[in-house]
Amino acid sequence: MRIMSELPGLGGDKPVHRIGGSDLCDLFGITPGMLTALGKRDIVVRLGHDAYDLEESARRYIASLRETASGRGGEEQVLNLTSERARLAREQADAQALKNAVLRGEYVPASEVERAWADTLRALRSRLLAVPSRLRQSMQHLTTSDVTMIDRELRDALQELGNADA
Question: Does this model's pTM top 0.85?
Answer without folding.
Answer: no
